[in-house]
Amino acid sequence: VYQRLMEIESRLLPTGLHVIGDAPSAEEAVATLVNIASIDREEEGIRGIPDILAEARGTTIDEVYKQNDLGTLEGVQLNKDITDATRAAVRAFVGDVTDFRGKVKRSLKQDAFTVAMGKLFKKEPSYVKALNELGFEGANKDDLRGVFDYLSFCLTQVVKDQELEGFFEALEG
């Protein structure tokens, strides 16, 4: 937990404080959502992205962390690959809801035409494409959908007019 808090602090301080009432930038959203996406929420049946990606490589995230801490080349590299892939997937997800100013859109809902075209052409979500490009084709798509649905909920709460209340609700799970 301490490591995660320090990571959040190190990411948020350089970007400055967010202005309440102003939609977060894509970079702010990615930094926040990567941290949210990295935590398992067992009580809600939501696995963290690193856990899903470790499973796709035939191991557990606890084992990856253990090998990383021991300094094994494979463990350090896999931990880096999982961290990079998590960021890339979240960045792709946020990119889908970012406007021309680099701010997260107030409405994350897709219009009916876009949804219909996606289904018709069996378009994969951008986060799945990002993970596939980084060698995580075997990641459980149902588990990924669950975590990204949760991230969508969290992002919606953050961009609401009553942002602060929504952010605290999202953090509480």
UniProtKB/TrEMBL annotation:
InterPro entries reported in the protein's UniProt record: CobN/Mg_chltase
Cleavable signal peptide: none
Superkingdom of origin organism: Eukaryota
GO cellular component terms listed in the entry, alphabetical order: chloroplast
Organism from which the protein derives: Picocystis salinarum
Sections of the chain in a coiled coil: none
Domain (CobN/magnesium chelatase) ranges: 1-173
Pfam families xref list: CobN-Mg_chel (PF02514)
Name this polypeptide is given: CobN/magnesium chelatase domain-containing protein
